[in-house]
Write a structure and sequence with these properties.
The structure is a single chain. With 560 residues, the chain is mainly beta. Helices cover 0% and strands 37% of the residues. The chain is built from no helices and 45 strands. The chain is elongated and about 75 Å long.
C-alpha cells in the first residue's frame, strides 16, 4: 500500500485524518505517515514550547503479499470483511487486492450490519495486480461502535483469500477494528450483501479509506514505521488456487452475556460482553539504536542489591486479605462503574468514562490486560495485580489507545511483554518487574509512542525493572508523533537494552521532557541496561531537562 497523505485544501483548526484498514495480513507492523499542517500554542508542565495540534495520517497493517494468486469459483462471487469504527468518520473510498490474471469486472459495496446498501462503485482504470481503489461519489458517514461490511463482486469468480487470518484474532488499524467473529464473508451470484462466513477465518483483502477528525501533536518531520514482512504466499501450503472455496455457513448461535458481580459497584451493575481473544502481534519500534553498533552488553549481576524507598511487592497490588469475587472480563460500557475486590479471568476493554478498577487481580493473556478505548477518559487502575499466566503472552498489561486520561497507581505488574503503553495520564507508585519476551518482541516497562498534545504524561515514583536485555525500562518512542510534555521523576529504573530511551532520535522529535531525581539501578545489568543507561535524549531540545539522575548506591550522577 502506498503510505501517503494529502493536505486539506484549506486550513482549519482541526484536520481530517485518513486510515486505511488494510486487511492484507493478520500480522505485521503499523506504517504511519505524518504531515505537518498548522501550528498553535499549547500549555503544559511549566515553561513549554508551542506544539502544533493537527496532522493527517494513514495507517496500514502490512504491505500487499508478494505473491497473491487468485482463487476461482465457477460463478460470480461477492467477498468482504466486517469492520467497526471506534470513532465517527466517513468512508471516502473502497479498495480490494487484485491478483495477476483477474480480468473480470469488479463492483465495490459498503453495507450496514443489516444489509442496507450505503454506497456502490465500479472499479475502473485498474492495474494488472495489487491494490485497486475507487473513490465514492460522496463520503458515507459512519457511527462509532456500529458494524459495517465492505465487499466487492468479482464477475469472473476470481479473488484473493488467505485461510486462518480471523481465527487468530481481530485486525486493527487506527480507529478501525475488523472483529474475528463471523468475518471473511461471502455470497454467490450478482452483487448482494455477503451474509455467509467460514469458520476457517478467510481474509478476502477488502478495505475502506476512512476519514476522521483528530487533534494530535505536531511532528517536526515525517516519520514512518516499516511494516513487518508477510508470507510470500497468501494461501495455505498445498492449496490449489483454481479449486473453489465453498465455506460452510457460520454458527449463528447467540452468545450468552454474563453479568459481572463485583463486591462494590457504583452506580449500577455494569454488563460485560465477552470479546474475542486476539493474537498479540507486536511491532518493531523505530528510533532504537542498533546493538551491533555499540559496545558489548554487560552481563546480569548475580543478585539484585537491596532497594528501599521504592515500590515493591509489599506496597503494591491488592490489599492483603482481600477476598476476591471472580468474574469473566470483556467489554465494559457502564460510565462511573467501580470494581473493588474482583478477580478477572479475561482482558478488560473499557468503552466508558470514569471507570475505576481497585484492589483487583487480572491474570490473562492476549493483546492487553486492561485497555481504554479511544473517545473515553478518566480510567483509574488502582492497586491491582495485572499479569500474564507465565506460559502465554500478555502483550500489554495496561493500554490507552486514545487521548483519554488514565491514572495507573500502586499496581503490581509482571509477566507481560510491555507493562504500560499510554501517551498521557499519571503513572505513579507501581512495581513493574519480571517482564517476558516472546519471539519478535520488543520489551518495555513503560512506553509512549507519541504524546497527546498539551496533556502531560507523568511517570513518578515507580520501580521499573526489565530483566530482558533489549529495548528499555522507559521508552519514549516517536512512532505515532513527537514526544512532548513528559515528566519522569523519582523512579527506580533498570534493565532493557538501555534503561531509558529519550525520544530524541530525530531533530525536534522531543520537547518539554523533564527527567529528574531518578535512580538508575545496576541490579539487573552492570550498566543499568545491557548496553548502557540512556539513549536518544536530546538535552538541547526546547524545554528538555536532565537533572539529578543518579546511580543506585553511589549517588554519582548519570552522565549523558
Amino acid at each position: 500500500m502506498a503510505r501517503s497523505s494529502r493536505r486539506a485544501g484549506g486550513r482549519r483548526s482541526r484536520l481530517p485524518g485518513l486510515v486505511s484498514l488494510l486487511a492484507a495480513c493478520a500480522v505485521g507492523g503499523v506504517a504511519v505517515t505524518v504531515i505537518l499542517t498548522n501550528r498553535s500554542p499549547e500549555t503544559s508542565l511549566g515553561p513549554t514550547v508551542p506544539v502544533a495540534q493537527e496532522r493527517i495520517l494513514q495507517a496500514s497493517f502490512a504491505p500487499e503479499p508478494r505473491e497473491a494468486r487468485p482463487r476461482r469459483d465457477p460463478m460470480p462471487v461477492e467477498v468482504g470483511m466486517r469492520f467497526v469504527p471506534q470513532i465517527e468518520g466517513q468512508v471516502v473510498a473502497l479498495r480490494f487486492l487484485k491478483a495477476r490474471g483477474d480480468s473480470g469486472r469488479h463492483i465495490g459495496s459498503l453495507w450496514s450490519d443489516r444489509g442496507a446498501l450505503l454506497a456502490r462503485v465500479t472499479f475502473s482504470s485498474e492495474t494488472s495486480r495489487g491494490w485497486q481503489e475507487a473513490r465514492l461519489s460522496a463520503p458515507v458517514a459512519l457511527e462509532a461502535g456500529r458494524t459495517y461490511t465492505v465487499s466487492y463482486n468479482s464477475g469472473a469468480g476470481r479473488y484473493v483469500a488467505q485461510r486462518g487470518v480471523f481465527t487468530r484474532g481481530p485486525l486493527e488499524a487506527g480507529p478501525l477494528v475488523a472483529p474475528a467473529e463471523r468475518n471473511g464473508v461471502f455470497s454467490y451470484g450478482r452483487p448482494a450483501f455477503p451474509r455467509r462466513s467460514n469458520r476457517a477465518g478467510y481474509n478476502y483483502f477488502v478495505d475502506v479509506v476512512f476519514r476522521y477528525t483528530t487533534a494530535v501533536p505536531d511532528p517536526a518531520a515525517e516519520e514512518s514505521v516499516p511494516p513487518t514482512s508477510v508470507p510470500a504466499d497468501p494461501q495455505e501450503p498445498g492449496e490449489t488456487p483454481e479449486v473453489p472455496v465453498t465455506p460452510a455457513l457460520p454458527d449463528d448461535t447467540a452468545t450468552t452475556t454474563p453479568e459481572a458481580t463485583p463486591t462494590v459497584i457504583v452506580p449500577a451493575t455494569p454488563r460485560f460482553t465477552p470479546r474475542y481473544t486476539p493474537r498479540a502481534t507486536p511491532a518493531a519500534t523505530p528510533g532504537r539504536p542498533d546493538p551491533t553498533a555499540t559496545s558489548e552488553p554487560s552481563k546480569p549481576t548475580q543478585a539484585p542489591p537491596p532497594v528501599t524507598g521504592f515500590p515493591d511487592a509489599s506496597t503494591t497490588g491488592p490489599a492483603k486479605g482481600t477476598v476476591f469475587t471472580r468474574m469473566k472480563g470483556g467489554e465494559l460500557r457502564q460510565n462511573g462503574a467501580v470494581y473493588d475486590g474482583v478477580e478477572i479471568t479475561d482482558s478488560i476493554d473499557v468503552y466508558a468514562d470514569n471507570v475505576t478498577l481497585r484492589n483487583c487481580r487480572i491474570i490473562t493473556t492476549g493483546e492487553w490486560g486492561v485497555q481504554l478505548r479511544n473517545g473515553h477518559t478518566n480510567l483509574v487502575v488502582d492497586h491491582c495485580e495485572i499479569a500474564g499466566d507465565g506460559r502465554r503472552q500478555l502483550a500489554v498489561a495496561v493500554k490507552n489507545i486514545g487521548d483519554g486520561d488514565i491514572t495507573i497507581r500502586g499496581n503490581d505488574i509482571h509477566d507481560a511483554t510491555d507493562a504500560i503503553n499510554t501517551g498521557r495520564g499519571t503513572i505513579e507508585g507501581n512495581y513493574i518487574h519480571d517482564l517476558r519476551a516472546f519471539t519478535g518482541d520488543h520489551v518495555d516497562g513503560i512506553q509512549t509512542e507519541g504524546s497527546s498534545g498539551s496533556a502531560p504524561l507523568v511517570i513518578k515514583n515507580n520501580t521499573i525493572l526489565n530483566p530482558v536485555g533489549q529495548t528499555s525500562a522507559i521508552m519514549l518512542a516517536t512512532s505515532l508523533g513527537p514526544v512532548t510534555n513528559v515528566l519522569i521523576q523519582g523512579n527506580l529504573i533498570g534493565g532493557g537494552g538501555y534503561c531509558f530511551y529519550g525520544g530524541g532520535d530525530k531533530a525536534g522529535s522531543s520537547r518539554n521532557v523533564v527527567v529528574r531525581d531518578n535512580v538508575f539501578s545496576r541490579s539487573l545489568f552492570s550498566n543499568c541496561g545491557a548496553y548502557g543507561p540512556v539513549a536518544h535524549f536530546d538535552r538541547s531540545a526546547p524545554g528538555n531537562v536532565w537533572q539529578n539522575n543518579v546511580w543506585q548506591g553511589t549517588r554519582n550522577l548519570v552522565e549523558l
